[in-house]
């Protein structure tokens, strides 16, 4: 069973007053930075803020944050951004930060299928997904078919291919 449609059918966004009322997704310019941070620290948060400013980013999609469950997230503040959603895990972890001038968005609870985790936000009818697939876990072939569209899918899929500079390719690469 594919749990990605869970975000579509059971999302707090569906019919919610928390979603922007504009209907034209093209009227909202979103610049997304996707980064595997390999452990989120205060210093990395400061660097991410500078990087986001340099590129004019409105969304930060972070993988491998390594933020332990029930951590004090106040030390993971990125100035100018709100933490929209996250999945805390000491070995991986995901976060989506949204620029603080985007006042209305809707976040879905994490979608967990086995060891694969996806978090998602909806901004003005546009869905941004952030997925982590651990090494040696096969990507479910049809898992992207039923996502809410329009969408941007970001994440760490642990896919390797020699074309991308890896020493070897794996099945998902």
From TrEMBL:
<protein>
    <recommendedName>
        <fullName>Endonuclease/exonuclease/phosphatase domain-containing protein</fullName>
    </recommendedName>
</protein>
<dbReference type="InterPro" id="IPR036691">
    <property type="entry name" value="Endo/exonu/phosph_ase_sf"/>
</dbReference>
<dbReference type="Pfam" id="PF03372">
    <property type="entry name" value="Exo_endo_phos"/>
</dbReference>
<dbReference type="InterPro" id="IPR005135">
    <property type="entry name" value="Endo/exonuclease/phosphatase"/>
</dbReference>
<dbReference type="InterPro" id="IPR052560">
    <property type="entry name" value="RdDP_mobile_element"/>
</dbReference>
<feature type="domain" description="Endonuclease/exonuclease/phosphatase">
    <location>
        <begin position="34"/>
        <end position="168"/>
    </location>
</feature>
<dbReference type="GO" id="GO:0003824">
    <property type="term" value="F:catalytic activity"/>
</dbReference>
